[in-house]
Specification:
By secondary structure, the chain is α/β, with parallel strands linked by helices. It contains 7 helices and 9 strands; from the N terminus they run βαβαβαβαβαβαβββα. The strands form 3 sheets. A 5-stranded parallel sheet has the order 2-3-4-5-6, covered by helices on one side. It has a two-stranded parallel ribbon with strand order 1-7. Strand 5 (127-130), helix 5 and strand 6 (156-159) form a beta-alpha-beta unit. Helix 2 (52-67) packs parallel to helix 3 (86-96) and helix 6 (168-175) runs parallel beside helix 7.
Length: 231
């Protein structure tokens, strides 16, 4: 039973960051916790083909989070034909130095994962976050295993996407991964007493206006324990 694994929790609020730390993990929001933080550099949602203006935002964001003490960065960019945008990534990696950089799940949208992995290794990315180019890490498990075999330790393959306490052991055992990414969230009702149920601040498929998703301390601890017992 090994202690050398890494659990990454995705957070989008101070409360989630604090709960993630209380649950015993390693990467969250630096200003409010004492554990390392990898900051996502992504100018918008949607695809990973960026305009000149969006690239400029990414450059400025990297400089800003470096100045604020980020421990690492998470980013990614593709060309219109679904390949790693090596030219842009090389530029962003240069700005990010000396911080370690993870290539995010833009990887799951590439045309050829094997070729893309070699490109990331050549560029100098520390790790790649992937669901195995499928709807979840469990569905993408065969490809994740092949990527880890292909990498041969030259880059870290971090499974992520739909990882829960119900499937973590299977994913770790089936892939051989030493790191994993999860949200470990649960729903919490808003403290608002007055509620206007006629208005939604977003699309109709958005999360309920008076419901909050936060990292769950018990879920983080459970996932942590499963990883310790599996690896």
């Amino acid at each position: 039973m090994a202690e050398s694994f890494l659990m990454e929790v995705c957070v989008d609020s101070v409360e989630s960051a604090v709960n993630a730390e209380r649950g015993g993990l390693l990467q969250v929001v630096k200003q409010h916790v004492r554990i390392p933080v990898y900051v996502m550099i992504r100018p918008r949602g949607g695809d990973f083909l960026y305009s000149d203006q969006e690239v400029e935002v990414m450059r400025k964001d990297i400089e800003l989070v470096k100045s604020q003490g980020a421990d690492g960065l998470v980013l990614g960019a593709l060309t219109e034909d679904g390949r790693v945008d090596a030219e842009l990534c090389m530029e962003l990696l240069a700005i990010a130095r000396p911080l370690p950089v993870t290539f995010h799940r833009a990887f799951d949208m590439v045309h050829d994962p094997s070729v893309a992995l070699e490109a990331l290794i050549s560029l100098g990315f520390q790790r790649v976050l992937t669901s195995g180019c499928d709807s979840s890490a469990l569905e993408g498990l065969p490809l994740i295993k092949r990527l880890i075999d292909q990498a041969k330790g030259r880059i870290i393959i971090m499974p992520g996407g739909g990882i829960t306490e119900r499937n973590l052991q299977r994913i770790l055992e089936g892939s051989g991964a030493q790191e994993f990414h999860c949200s470990a969230r649960s729903s919490r009702d808003s403290a608002m007493k007055f509620r206007n149920t006629c208005v939604m601040m977003g699309a109709s498929f958005s999360a309920p206006e008076y419901g909050l998703k936060v990292a769950d301390v018990s879920k983080v601890r459970t996932l942590n324990a499963i990883a310790k017992n599996t690896l």
